[in-house]
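QA checklist item 7 of 12: single-chain prediction sanity check.
[x] sequence parsed
[x] length recorded as 103
[x] structure emitted
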Amino acid sequence: MDWATAEREWIGAVVVVGLTYVDAGGEFLRQEQVHGLIVSVDPVNGIELDLSGNRMGESYWLPPELGAFEAARPGEYRLRSTGEIVRDPDLLSSWTLQAPVDS
């Protein structure tokens, strides 16, 4: 998918995002999920979400990596971190965030 197609097809789409946090050595710290609407798609700045649910009103930016998104199957998705249920999202995305190595 190219950026023009992503912009045309994804703006307004509901996405569920899984975030796994690891320390500098790669050891698991915690997991979190967020969900919301995609409001902008930009190859430089990334993908901006307008979060919903417990984090309604917050913006969240994901890196400009189109390959990190996949179509979601219809159904209910329960967010483990909050217990919220998201019905029939359009897209799913998962990310691992690693803490920097102390110098």
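[x] summary fact logged: The radius of gyration is 14 Å.
[ ] second reviewer sign-off
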